[in-house]
Amino acid sequence: MSTYDLKSIRLEVIEAGVDKVFLVTGGKAHIGAVSTFYVDQERVSGTTVHIPGHKEQELCERLARKAALQLKVTVTVIMGIHFDSITRMQIDEIVHTAERLMDEHLSRMPEQTQLSEESQEERPN
Fold first, then answer.
1. What is the pTM of this model?
2. Do 48 and 55 contact (CB within 8 A), yes or no?
3. Which of 7, 34, 82, 87 has its CA 20 to 30 A from that of 115?
4. In contact, 80 and 30? CB cutoff 8 Å
5. What is the largest CA-CA distance in the chain?
């Protein structure tokens, strides 16, 4: 059983070269959705996969899209947050908390207007 506790929501960041992997978990942690987005000529593209029965996909996709657009690198967000028997208001608080954690992380990162020559050479076409 997982009791509602906003303090259990975590955002962890893994560097993958210039790219980023964000792990967002809370309550009974699991993998409910995975989103990967990238910027291609100022257009954000990507995909989201979710496990049937899980409801994280919309938030997962929104966070991945936002981070990719701001950071101008490939971003993958892996998300799994579960609390038993929560209300609509609590879901809204969870969404707000996850968005705030991402915003706080992104505000500490310098916005990249273009990739460095070195990192462009590392990327396969």
1. 0.86
2. no
3. 34
4. yes
5. 50
Q: How far apart are CA 6 and CA 108, in angstroms?
A: 22
DSSP annotation string for 44-95: EEEEEEE-TT---HHHHHHHHHHHHHHH-S-EEEEEEEE-SS--HHHHHHHH
Residue for token pair 């809204």:
92
- pLDDT tens profile 68-106: 999 999 999 999 999 999 999 999 999 999 999 999 999
Tokens 């000529």 identify what position? Answer: 41
Tens digit of each residue's pLDDT (9 = 90 or more) over 24-75: 999 999 999 999 999 998 799 999 999 999 999 999 999 999 999 999 999 9
Query: Cα angle at 58 between 52 and 60, to 5 degrees?
Result: 90
N- to C-terminal Cα separation, the chain: 46
